[in-house]
Amino acid sequence: MTDRLDAQFAFLIEADKLKQVIRATTLADGSRRENSGEHSWHLALYALVLADQAGPSVNIDRVIKMLILHDLVEIDVGDVPIHSANGAAHGSAEIAEAEAQAATRIFGLLPADLGTDLRALWEEFEAAETPDAIFAKSLDRVQPVLHNIASGGGTWTEYNVTFDQLETRVGQKVARGAPTLWTYVRGRLRSFFPEV
Amino acid sequence: MTDRLDAQFAFLIEADKLKQVIRATTLADGSRRENSGEHSWHLALYALVLADQAGPSVNIDRVIKMLILHDLVEIDVGDVPIHSANGAAHGSAEIAEAEAQAATRIFGLLPADLGTDLRALWEEFEAAETPDAIFAKSLDRVQPVLHNIASGGGTWTEYNVTFDQLETRVGQKVARGAPTLWTYVRGRLRSFFPEV
């Protein structure tokens, strides 16, 4: 039991570093950039509050677990902003490989049974093929949009994002898991993108 | 649907302020104090990783939800450190009343059905009577102990905490929901408290 708890706490203390990974998106009031630890909490809260936007086959408890885990690999790889490098960095094969190595190291700190289970949840999120993962990804994409609206433009201004780019990089992915949610959020974008 | 989503997002944007509530405990590396948003994420991860420490009647999915919500009232009331005012501030009737008012305001931003459900989960956590709430409280108390061990003393030094005080304010509450966990953590306290 002591060896098992040693491993569980080694992982939990390592995970603490996620609070020092800084994202491109700011807090809603624009006062500072968000870190990936607090972002992960906010997304879990999104799942709890927006569960009624999920399809009937979505298990919201699994979505919440995925969102708690989804950014841990950033401890090694950092956050890759969705609009950086003109949208080409996020999801590249190079980043995917680095994240897989990070997952091996970080989930490998856990007792083997638990590490295998939690890594499988993270891989399911990354693959974005199951209803749970698709809905979790929708929330991960929509939260920065709300922060940019609240803070008056945020990363769209910083990265010169057009509405077409936003629709491709963000809107289509939000709509895939939560179509009504994207229709609603899209309607709030008129003052930022006249072409909406 | 638009009115409902307006209310859900008003709540989610308000909740963002929890990332600006600063706690007494530092990050594990001691580099800065932790905020209550990232703390809430870390505790949800604790529940996911330490689920095997919970008794058979504990529903870990409900524990995770409680931990996501448990500190929201701090947006209005602030964090009350467990060792501040010689241990007398935390859990006082005055603080409890202020937190109840904060819950009315904050959960009141949500659509009524959802606000009622989430407030009930928060009240269950606060009351610490059900197995789920007792286990959630154990995790909330044990995480700062691990950070103080990792950072070399932390708030114990700052507030001149004795081992007896730690046992009363923290140990008994961790042991109530997770006895093996406290036995393990207690064993790691010898270098800080010679009387262990």
From TrEMBL, chains A, B:
The record's keywords, sorted A to Z, are:
Hydrolase, Metal-binding
Q: Which residues form the HD domain?
A: 15-182
Task: Supply the InterPro entries for this chain.
Answer: HD_domain, YfbR/HDDC2
Q: Name one Pfam family in it.
A: HD_3
Answer whether the UniProt record assigns the keyword Hydrolase to this protein. Answer: yes
Keyword Cytoplasm carried by entry: no
**Protein's name according to its UniProt entry:** HD domain-containing protein
In its UniProt entry, the species of origin is given as Albidovulum litorale
